[in-house]
Design goal:
This protein is 32% helix and 16% strand. With 161 residues, it is α+β, with helices and mostly antiparallel strands. The chain folds into 2 domains: 6-82, Roll (Ubiquitin-like (UB roll)); 86-156, [2Fe-2S]-binding domain (DNA polymerase, domain 1). Strand 1 and strand 2 form a beta hairpin. The longest helix has 14 residues, at 110-123.
Length: 161
Amino acid sequence: MSAGAVRVRLSVNGESHEIEVEPRTLLVHALRDSIGLTGTNVGCDTSSCGACTILVDGRSAKSCTMLAVQAEGSEIVTIEGLAATSDGDGLHPMQEAFHECHGLQCGYCTPGMILASVSLVDEYPDLDDKKVREGLEGNLCRCTGYHNIVRAVLTAAGKEA
């Protein structure tokens, strides 16, 4: 182990990982650089955009505001592992809804937007257009204008928009 590094055990997408990181390493960088899961994007580095959103113990979290050492003992799901959490084969229902409702354009925000949306639907069963927009305020998209994203979230929640 290199001087100053700490060993962290992470459960990511159902797999155990033991990595060495500097104590101040952000979780987003540990996921991308140490584990090789590059679907989690680095956008603003200030927690403003939400491109780095993942699920930590089933709830959305911005991985640019969390240290890797803080995630020890938690179950992490990234966009690469989301489909595996679904009951069937193929895409998770939220991924399918984003595809069907054209809730993406360039795709940079999409992984974080999808994971934040999964958490939103799980936490709030009575969603409507306004609540989805408020719930996703921490995730920015520069391409779509949000209409199709909101439609996708409501579709996945079974509340056709």
